[in-house]
Amino acid sequence: MNIEHSLSQEIQQAFQSIFEVTIELPSLQATNKEFEGDYTLVVFPFTKTLRQKPEDIASKLGEYLAENSPQIASFNVVKGFLNLVLKENTWKKALEYIQQQPSYGNAPAKNQKVMVEFSSPNTNKPLHLGHLRNNFLGDSISRILEANGYEVIKANLINDRGIHICKSMVAYEREGNGESPQSSGIKGDHLVGKYYVEFDKALRQETKVLHEAIFRSVEQPDTPYKVAFPEAAQKKIDAILAKIKTQKDSKKISELEGDLKQIVQNQTFLMREAKDLLQKWEAGETETYALWQKMNGWVYEGFEETYQKIGISFDKVYHESETYLLGKDIIQDGLEKDVFYQEEDGSVWIDLTANKLDKKLLLRSDGTSVYMTQDLGTADLKYKDFQIDKSVYVVGNEQDYHFNVLFKILEKLDRPYSKGLYHLSYGMVDLPTGKMKSREGTVVDADDLVNQMLEIAKQKTDELGKADDFEPEALQKLYHQIAIGALKYYLLKVDPQKRMMFNPEESVDFEGDAGPFIQYNFARISSLLRKAESLGIKKDGFDGYSDLKPSEIALIQIIYNLPKKIEEAAQNYSPSIVAQYAYEVAKTYSKFYNDCPVLVAEGEAAKSFRLMLSAQTAQVLEKTMNLLGIEMPEKM
User: Fold this and answer.
1) In DSSP terms, which residues pair with 423 in a beta bridge?
2) Residues with Cβ < 8 Å from 328, sequence gap 6 or more?
3) pLDDT tens digits for 367-401?
4) Quick one: how many helices (H) and strands (E) in the chain?
5) Mean pLDDT of 238-255
6) DSSP string, 37-94
7) How far is CA 189 from CA 70, 126, 302, 306, 478, in A?
8) Distance between CA atoms of residues 393 and 130, nearest Å
């Protein structure tokens, strides 16, 4: 049943009958809440063709439809806007249709595969608050796309190689003394993250000492610093020092000092040790590889524990250690197609300046690949594995440029999947205390945050008396449902592209725009249905009940919009559309519940109808929250 479509057809017929013109099927919009009406037709676009005032066109159409349409009860005209009020029976039929559709809201199968790649953590630290937004977005958009008829593959590309994990390995080799998650009682990903932080502390201290020694040589030329830097680095340092000695501008001096500090940091003994370890890993050196496997194994176990806690799973897991060499065959393909070009030193580039992008290095002169090359190869691998039609990358907006380049290259290479690529770019998550920094150990750890949310959920639930009559096990489950529901809803209700502030206390709210408020309304309906069943009240009545109240019509209208909202969320890759819709449904039901008694309504027909309307609302709430990955407690 599609009310808008049938109304549009009737309007199309009205134009033919009144004005003897054929128009395309017109689009309708929801009537502004300031005016009476359910749907509005904007008639301004037709004034030029009909050569009549917009008010006259709207009035003639309204009169025709009120007389001939079985759906329209009345109309009103506001300038060039025709507002149509539907008959009560139209909404009753809509509700009856919804009741007969077990999967109402789901689109037919599109016979297309979509891979959604998300999470993609580094194995040198535990998941943090930023990862939570990423995971929740990826999981939710996967569910939304599936509801829209796509076959969805949820993928995770774990960054398990590179200098970041080597830093943790260096610190562990120096200070670990055989420590393990079992011996220390520290979760595996936290343990490895601890050594990453320790490495950075030591690196900053060593950099500071070297930096100060170098600057003493500027102030005291007779006291040269005694550090053996590689020749190339030494030349850069000497060149910067020469500039500093002659520079008068304090701002320029500060910039030069920053450049010098970066060079020094990269040439510290610690950084050289980490780079040496990376080279050993790439060469397959036995002891290095064994340590890498052991420490990554700890991290994987820690990740999995967190994923289970927050309700996240994957259909396919890729590891960068298995994909980082991919893409080199693509270089030859690009050269043969004249998409890439080669410099005299052997390096391979692509020139995207005509596309308002830059020239991009794809292969170094020594034949080693860069991240872009790896991503090209991984994109081909994903298509080879699953023959996907679309590929969605859930990655923060700091990588916008990278994905613009990646997608443009794949388009120029004429890859069969290139038109289905999408970067679900999202903003960072801040806290009231400020930004997070992984290397300094100031990130908000995901596990710690979940535990904090559990404490807040327990406290607020107990204070409001919503935990009465629960068995201990059921009560713990309720706390978890409320805590994770609050966390997911708060992070998903904001448009993905917007930077956001997360406040744990605000997220657990049983009355406002928050997950627990929606969960509470679902639990209230569940309680209502249980009580009605015990009283023998049926919930399948349509006949014998008329004169629908405004709150009843408003509730039918909003649950009728479920398919449209899911489709809109899929088209915009935005779970926030579903989140806000779920809140509006819960808010509309809350008003209906206060305005229209259910179990004590006058007459069995009213009881039955309102009970059935409540049951349909519960289904919509459960479905929309499930699309956000949120469980709904049947008792609160």
Assistant:
1) 393
2) 363, 369, 373, 377
3) 888 999 999 999 999 999 999 999 999 999 999 99
4) 24, 14
5) 81
6) -SEEEE-GGGHHHHTS-HHHHHHHHHHHHHHH-SSEEEEEEETTEEEEEEPHHHHHHH
7) 64, 5, 5, 10, 27
8) 15
463: CATH: 1.10.730.10
In the chain, the amino acid numbered 38 is D
Are the C-beta atoms of 484 and 633 separated by less than 8 Å? no
In what order do the strands lie in the sheet containing 341-342? 341-342, 348-351, 359-363
Domain range for 31 is 3-86
Cα distances (angstroms) measured from residue 231 to each of 270, 312, 429? 18, 50, 42
266 φ/ψ sector (left φ>0, alpha ψ -120 to 50, else beta): alpha
Q: Residue 369: is it exposed, middle or buried by C-beta count within 10 angstroms (0-12/13-18/19+)?
A: buried
pLDDT at 225: 59
Average pLDDT over residues 507-511: 87
* Residue 116 belongs to some domain of the structure: no
Task: Say if 337 falls within a structural domain.
Answer: no
Look at residue 441 in the predicted model and tell me its pLDDT: 46
Is residue 574 within 8 Å of residue 626, measured between CB atoms? no
Q: Is residue 104 part of a domain?
A: no
Answer with the one of 230, 264, 282 that is the final residue of a domain: 282
Which residues, listed in sequence order, are joined to residue 363 by a DSSP beta bridge?
348, 369
pTM of the model as a whole: 0.89
From residue 423, how far is each of 134, 256, 393 by CA, in Å? 12, 36, 5
Q: In which residue are the tokens 């054929």 written?
A: 22
Q: What are the tens digits of pLDDT across the range 309-366? A: 999 999 999 999 999 889 988 999 999 999 999 999 999 999 999 999 999 999 999 8
